[in-house]
Each structure stands twice: as C-alpha cells, then as structure tokens.
Amino acid sequence: MKTRITELTGTRYPIIQGGMQWVGRAELASAVSNAGGLGILTALTQPTPEALAAEIERCRTMTDKPFGVNLTILPTAQPVPYEAYAEVIAGSGVGVVETAGRSPAEFIARFKQAGVKIVHKCTAVRHALSAQRAGVDAVSIDGFEAAGHPGEDDIPGMVLIPAAARALDIPILAAGGMATGRSMAAALALGAEGVTMGTRFMLTKEAPIHEAIKQAVVQGSERDTTLIFRQLRNTARVFRNAVAEEVNVKEREPGATFENIKALVAGARGRAALESGEVDGGLVWAGLGIGLMDDIPTCAELIERIVGECRDALARATALTAE
C-alpha cells in the first residue's frame, strides 16, 4: 500500500501501533515493524530517559525496519522530565515520534532539527488544526471508540474522521475501533490514509503482558468497556473490571475529587495487573473494538490479515457501485 503515511513512516503498510503504557516495549514494537507496520515504543513506560535510550537500542537489535516512540505529555502526580525524554528521542535516530496529551509545540523545532517526523494524537478537529499550525507532519484522530482518553466531545469515528479529512491538509490516521480489515477499509473511505491500533496490538502474541489479561479482554464484547473520570472532565475508556466499576461508584459520590480514586487508578497498580494476570487488580485500558476481536494472533498474522480483508472490503464496495 502507498499513502502519504507510508511515505512519511517508510513502512510497507499504513498501520501504526499506538503508544500504550506498560505495553509499548521492544518485543511488540519490533514485531509490528517486522510485519510491515510502524511499531511504537512508549517513552514513559521507561523509568528514565536513559532507560528509554537503552530500550531504543534494544529494539534496534530486534528489527532493521523503521519504528517510532510515543511521548505522552500529561499532568502527573510526580514531575516528569519531558524535555530529557524528548532529547533522547531527537538524538536516537528514530524516524517518527507519536505525541499525545497536550500540544507538542515546545518540542517540534528540536524534532524537526533531528529529522524526526511528528504524528500528534488528537480527539477533536480543532485540536488537529492547532497541531497542523504548530507544524506536525500528520495527526492520528481518535474517535470516541478509542481506549485511553477520547476527549470530552464524544464524537465517534464515523463523523470525526471525515470531518478531520475535510479540514486538514496534512495526512490523518484513523484511531478508535480500528480492529479489522473492514475497519481499515472504512477509514480509508472516510478520508484517512492509514490507521492507528492500540488494543488490537495489545491482543497479540508478542504483546508483553500476561496471557490471562489478553484472554479476559478478547472474550469481552463491545459492551465490556466503561468510561471513567467523566465527573473529572478527563474521560477515559477502560476494560470493565472490578476496579473500573469501583472508580465509577466513587467518583460519583458527592464532593468526590481525584484523591478519592487515586489509589485505585495508580499506574503501578495497573502495571502489576498486566504483569501478574490479575484481571481485577488494576485498570486495564481497552477500546470498543474488543467487540470485533476474537483471537490472539502474531503481529505478522494480524497485519497480513487486516491488509487482505481491507483490500477485499474495498473491492466489494467498489463492485456494489459498478454500473
């Protein structure tokens, strides 16, 4: 496949593995890249900028294909040296950085100086336009179906993707609910030039999380995610487990603040759940697309299947419109 996204990333297919905390490690990123997509290391999964540099080098021993790094810039309980992480990325020789959270404007000049292409994750057209003005090379537009933080507008991909495609000059990737070749075909038809997938790559053999977590999520339907942090205006979509349900109850209590749920949603607790396989041990992030996922393939099997299904779906749609 050839789109502006494949030209930007240097990949065979316009398929990007989104950044995922605790999941975006060298094992997964290298497998995605070796299969023709763009694997992404998650910078803040690494405890220090120096550890990120080591992880980038480790990934290089596992693939000779392009891969990138995600840098999510969000308010945190403990200060994060974002500038130092950005400097590691800029000096590492990776070709693409996926930014998320607040605007990456303060780091754009440094990334461009190093020849790093910038893909910024957005949940609204207005944010995408702002990122375009700031100088990013592409945006990943996240619909309401997405895992993680889908914004506060609640706009699904069927509307958000074509709205972004109509407004922007730079290429866009569709994210949120991207799980099959049909999803990809729909995204391309709506104006995207590629897809970003998080949860679908989390449910692969190479994803470095416990098999029990993968099995629990893959057995879920489109009704087995829930929205938390709604009352805090920081909406997040996660897998529906005991911790997520408790968060929903506590945050609805009169006068509730983040302190009421802080212990439940701690990143260390979520990491421990992913590593131990204790499904109800912490937050497990997952998107609505789990309703379309029913197996745990290798990354190579998944990408080839998605590309094949996408071509078949586009051919079928074309045939339906033939005179």
Automatic annotation (TrEMBL):
Cross-referenced Gene3D superfamilies, in alphabetical order? Answer: Aldolase class I
Keywords (alphabetical) are:
Flavoprotein, FMN, Oxidoreductase
What name has this protein been given in UniProt? NAD(P)H-dependent flavin oxidoreductase
Xref: SUPFAM superfamilies: Inosine monophosphate dehydrogenase (IMPDH)
* A Pfam family that the UniProt record links to this protein: NMO
Mention one GO molecular function. Answer: oxidoreductase activity
Q: What class of enzyme is it?
A: oxidoreductase
**Documented EC number(s):** 1.13.12.-
